[in-house]
Amino acid sequence: MAAHQEKKLSEERNHKSTQNGTPSQVQWGRAWEVDWFSLASVLFLLMFAPLIVYYFIMSCDQYQCSLVDPLVDFLTGNKYLSDIWNKTPRLTYRAAGVYTFWVAFQVVLYLFIPDFCHKFIPGYVGGVQEGAVTPAGVVNKYQINGLQAWIITHVLWFANAYYFHWFSPTIIFDNWIPLLWCANILGYAVSTFAMIKGYFFPTNAADCKFTGNFFYDYMMGIEFNPRIGKWFDFKLFFNGRPGIVAWTLINLSYAAKQQELYGEVTSSMILVNVLQGIYVLDFFWNEAWYLKTIDICHDHFGWYLGWGDCVWLPYLYTLQGLYLVYHPVQLGRASTIGILMLGLIGYYIFRVTNHQKDLFRRTNGNCKIWGKKPEYIECSYMSADGTKYYSKLMTSGFWGWARHFNYTGDLMGSLAYCLTCGFEHILPYFYIVYMTILLTHRCFRDEHRCFSKYGKDWKRYTAAVPYRLIPGIF
Ligand code: NDP
Question: Which family would the database say this protein is a member of (predicted)?
């Protein structure tokens, strides 16, 4: 509650002046025009991302997680595509029922159970919270109750596994490919609905963007914050639940499968569950902070977020656990400790860096970073309605070391997940390769946007903090 009031005060302090006259259309936020490279990337992803997910999951199902063997089989004529496809499990009524129940249950938790965690967990910020100012000058309110949804879901999961036995805890693994078809149906349905909604009944027309290119708009979204009713926010729902709540359940299902197959859960599987569990729990503990991240503050809702949250995230972020079902790696004590340390140090950097920015922004710089008053660069920007806002870019703490040191911590944690799987196959290393591309691209994307937003003030900031990810190197 106190944090909420503090944030409101800080926003009022920031919101200093309104310009008279006609509203000016500002350029920050996602692109208005599409260059050929962006269009080519969009077309590539639309065509190949679903195939990439299928290829990885099929490789585990039919080739013990080897990414090379299916290619060799195909290129040497040993197998035809039709052979592989014919061996692929189809959509089943059971999977459709499980998936529908799962999504409906998360909708109920999201919409109908207002947050009670913030009433009794000290330091947790939940309940109704405000997002950042959108390019059109709107401040949305969100019902933050993800931690509660995560806790209820997991309590029920363990209650079922150890007491009720309604279904097997291996249910997710056992239906993994049929569930993939369900996730794809939802991912495409929600992205298509978001596109139609953007044209015909947008939540906030002033925050819509049309490039005139169908594929770009479908992929990157038209609406900024599509909603149904007052509280069903597409971005917050689809990213957090079913996407991120599912992450830890999927890993638990993999652990249960190892137990069933080998009579034990390996140290590597425990490490994956613990390290990714910390990351997921951190997300829900800090869900109010998430409202200030790029996903919510800057990205529009299209296929990238809609399909990505339903398919890409649950299927490819959990590859290590899936791999360990097929290859139960037992790590030695030194490797376990080394990987755990790497994961925890990465998490520490990720969390502290994000916390420093959050604290700095919430208190408008009236805080201590590493025991001292933070240093910063004053900057200003304008929203579409012509209102001028003032903000600050911090140059202290980890934000003085590099412009995206939070990404560096995230990458260290990602590497730790992959290392749990040993070095026999490349499949589990997909995650670190993907995260490196994603976060490096995000650096450039964010910096381009910040430059459009802050202009010469951003230049002053990059001169003060010249490196992006690794001080002295990049
Ligand atoms: P940030 O949290 O770094 O947010 C970037 C924004 O912060 C900028 O657009 C700017 O916004 C503001 N900002 C930039 N520099 C400063 C500064 N020096 N002082 C104050 N504010 C500043 O980025 P993300 O939202 O991308 O990432 C959040 C976290 O989520 C990261 O730790 C990242 O690793 C993680 N992440 C994980 C992903 C995954 O798939 N696992 C995917 C993406 C992110 P403004 O306009 O407000 O000034």
Answer: Belongs to the ERG4/ERG24 family.
